[in-house]
Amino acid sequence: MAVWGERLAGVRGVLLDISGVLFDSCEGGGVPIPGSVEAVARLKQSQLKVRFCTNESQKSRGKLVGLLQRLGFDISEGEVTSPAPAACQILKERGLRPHLLVHDDILSEFDKIDTSNPNCVLIADAGDAFSYKNMNKAFQVLMELENPVLISLGKGRYYKETLGLMLDVGAYMKALEYACGVEAEVVGKPSPEFFKNALQVLGVEAHQAQ
Amino acid sequence: MAVWGERLAGVRGVLLDISGVLFDSCEGGGVPIPGSVEAVARLKQSQLKVRFCTNESQKSRGKLVGLLQRLGFDISEGEVTSPAPAACQILKERGLRPHLLVHDDILSEFDKIDTSNPNCVLIADAGDAFSYKNMNKAFQVLMELENPVLISLGKGRYYKETLGLMLDVGAYMKALEYACGVEAEVVGKPSPEFFKNALQVLGVEAHQAQ
Q1: What's the cofactor (chains A, B) (predicted)?
Q2: Which residue of A117, A166, A180, B122 is most buried, as measured by CB atoms within 10 A?
């Protein structure tokens, strides 16, 4: 504890990842990583401010939090920073109307976004929805735009499920970047803005966070 | 004709592309590009040696040539350099057993290749077979190899069909390169070996070809 005490000197807040850190997802649910339920409970009982910071983009925040609660975690929707709400903010600020290539389970996050006559493409970890047909449609939308804008919720290479490694959105982002000759704008980790936003909600400076 | 005479001074052979040059493909067939049937006929009546050099990897050479013949082109299978046979040569030479992610229509090109217990991944323009499931399987095979080898038949960004632009194999090559941290070996254009092989068959040096 003395070592931890030293390491935590000056630390006021903790950002926790979710997938692969608190739990491994699997078909229809997930499995907590041993010790993680207790670790979250102890952190929340401490003086430290805690926020969950995830690139999860296959599930809405509501669904993700519901799953975590069922697995025994003390967590609420308001404690989670995830890329879809951050992206919605950007879309609104810049008057962007996305063609969405996302998992059905996060479509609800874009309920209030105008998707008519798209002037950008937004992709997330779409899983099986990354079909050739859907990828080709996203590609064609980008190629028809005078100033193509590609927004990607994260740029992960892969993630771990109980069944093994799974291709993440970053691979498909690279495919569209190459085909269209564009560079994607990444919303989510490791974008500094994403972390800053999470810290701002906690009221903690970057040097005070772990 | 005088201008052409000058431009062709010293030229003994001509390599012709096929898709997008001789014809545009479409669902179930293709449409010749105006003037191309006649141009091929005139070239073949001339003193020039002619060979067709294509990255087409959705159809076997047999099917491609059959289609071109139906469209009116004077062409035979032996006159075509395409990436699948070139790849088979490489696989045999290096003792590589591929996990194939290719279109059903070119599976026959790999009839004589051992695909058991794969020690590499080979991708081609697989069209609808570029599903998430199939891409994920190719990714997992690569990740399990100590020395991952990814072979890509071409690295085109997209090609034109009568219905519009279509994502080509290069986009999916980039996706796997990024996810696995590997660099693909490209068989087909623009690889110099591929052109050299086509010229060798013609018996023409590079400086004598157009």
Answers
A1: Mg(2+)
A2: B122
